[in-house]
Amino acid sequence: MASRFSQMLNSPVGPKTSHFWAPVAKLCVAGASFADYFRPAEQISMSQQGALMVTGSIWTRWCFVITPKNYALAAINASVGIGGGYQFFRAYKWHRDHPDQGLAQHEKQLLQEKSKSEKLAAKEAAVGA
Question: What's the CA gap between 64 and 22, in Å, rounded?
Answer without folding.
Answer: 14
